Amino acid sequence: MRIKVINPNTTASMTQTIVAAAKAAAAPGTEIVGATSPTGPVSIEGHYDEAVSVIGLLEEIRAGEREGCDGYVIACFGDPGLLAAREAARGPVLGIAEAAMHAASFVATGFSVVTTLGRTRIIAEHLVHAYGMERHCRRVRATELAVLELEDPASDARRKIVDECRRALDEDGSGAIVLGCGGMADLARDLTHELGVPVIDGVGVAVKFIEALAGLGINTSKRGDLAFPLPKPYTGMLAGMAFRSK
Ligand code: 5HY
């Protein structure tokens, strides 16, 4: 099985962190193909960044269809372009927010999300509602760390994340933590041990969920809204994004 793990921001070093977590989770025989978006923002920290990042993401999905990929992981906590990616793909496509929230709901009656900047909190809160996780998500918390500070040793990121996780466990009545950024993927196992509760990274979970779905031959439905996009002319700088009939 070949699973493509796509980092929708353009920071290749963050893709390395994400791919390492995906490979650590993958079963023997599962090939992980890592990809960094070829165009767009170095980090996604708001609605505009997210909207622009979707083009590069869809380019990687379309390339994956040519490369014979069986499934896809969107490794950004806003799950940007998830439904558009499902239209373009035959196999299952999972966003790390959706995957992590569902996994958390299997192991705790309440979880908190710990994410980066406060301005992105609303994006995660919208996803909590979109995925029907209101009854499980106690709170979305921000560390006020910029996404790229996660890679900066001088930012003291790990301590700030641990402190926010502890506040979530003490104040929100949560039994699990969902890490709110692909760039935090390398922290899950370590923080689970340190905090004594499930600390969930959506990259690893999404890989396992796709192995389960694709392994059972469960692909994205091509009936209705997730059918392949209708072939039509596109004009201007995105003319090449037009779909041709299958
Ligand atoms: C992410 N941004 O996972 C999100 C995190 C966030 O570039 N990768 C990003 O802050 O929403």
TrEMBL record:
Top-level taxon of the source organism: Bacteria
InterPro entries for this protein: Asp/Glu/hydantoin_racemase, Hydantoin_racemase-like, Iso_Racemase_Enz_sf
EC number, UniProt record: 5.1.99.5
Signal peptide: none
GO molecular function, one term: hydantoin racemase activity
Annotated catalysed reactions: D-5-benzylhydantoin = L-5-benzylhydantoin; a D-5-monosubstituted hydantoin = a L-5-monosubstituted hydantoin; D-5-isobutylhydantoin = L-5-isobutylhydantoin
Family according to the record: Belongs to the HyuE racemase family.
UniProt-recorded name of the protein: Hydantoin racemase
Protein source organism: Lichenifustis flavocetrariae
